[in-house]
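tl;dr need the bound structure. longer version: we got a ligand (nickel (II) ion) that a collaborator sent over and nobodys looked at where it sits. i said id run it. heres the input, straight from their email, havent touched it
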Amino acid sequence: MALLKILKYPDPRLRIKAKRVTKIDSALRRVVADMYETMYDSQGVGLAATQVDVHWRLFTMDLSEAHDQPICIVNPEIVHLEGEQFESEGCLSVIDAWDKVKRAAKVILRGMDLESNPLEMEAEGLMAACFQHEIDHLDGILFVDHLSRLKRERIDKKIEKNNRQA
Ligand code: NI
């Protein structure tokens, strides 16, 4: 396994719309294993393939503290949205920025596991928000896109400044 490089906003590759996975082979499984390692190493709860410059529709996630509940969804689709929540989010691709994002409170997600078995999951709260956040990534959307222009500009300025100093 290997740690992958996580693309950082405003890298334009984060805007690429990922393609549907048509074949799950050993190369793709290796990418997923590396994504888990990268996600755990960065203390993230979710990682979309887009973030590691792999433009296939899949993401990894683990919301447990013990890192023992790995979830990988291939070709995820939200088929039902319900209610509303407004909670703070961050992203491994957006350094040092957290802000509240309006999301559906409850979702039903459909997709496949790594063995190509169809799956359906019902989620609410944090997990529902994460599903929406990761699927956004696969469509080239970042959580900062959901913020007001003012907040977005504040984050952009901070990142520009950090990049200048780096
Ligand atoms: Ni993210």
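gonna send this back to them w/ a short note. The radius of gyration is 15 Å.
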